[in-house]
């Protein structure tokens, strides 16, 4: 999924205006590929990733690399 999301990030950012968002929640956000790109492009926003503990493995490192870790919370859980 991360590979597919990575290939779609540019199109997603072009298709949606996140500039007015104060908080963006990525349900089933996995390792943070999409949310880290959104937060890089829109640093005014705070992010939340909700996914299973296995799903969010690697999210903290990716968000740190994107310099978005201080504006993002990683929440282990199930959306069901």
Overview of the structural elements:
- The protein is an alpha/beta fold and 80 residues long.
- The protein has one domain (2-76): Rossmann fold (3-Layer(aba) Sandwich), CATH 3.40.50.
- Helices cover 38% and strands 20% of the residues.
- The protein is built from three helices and three strands.
- It has helices spanning 2-15, 33-41, 59-65, and strands at 23-27, 46-51, 72-76.
- It has a three-stranded parallel sheet with strand order 1-2-3, covered by helices on one side.
- Strand 2 (46-51), helix 3 (59-65) and strand 3 (72-76) form a beta-alpha-beta unit.
- Helix 1 packs parallel to helix 2.
- The chain is globular.
- The two termini are 19 Å apart.
- The model has no long low-confidence stretch (mean pLDDT 86).
């Amino acid at each position: 999924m991360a590979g597919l999301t990575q290939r779609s990030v540019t199109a997603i950012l072009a298709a949606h205006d996140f500039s007015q968002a104060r908080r963006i929640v990525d349900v089933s956000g996995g390792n943070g590929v999409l949310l880290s790109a959104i937060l890089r492009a829109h640093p005014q926003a705070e992010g939340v990733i909700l996914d299973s503990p296995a799903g969010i493995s690697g999210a903290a490192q990716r968000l740190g690399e994107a310099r978005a870790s201080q504006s993002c919370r990683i929440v282990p859980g199930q959306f069901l």
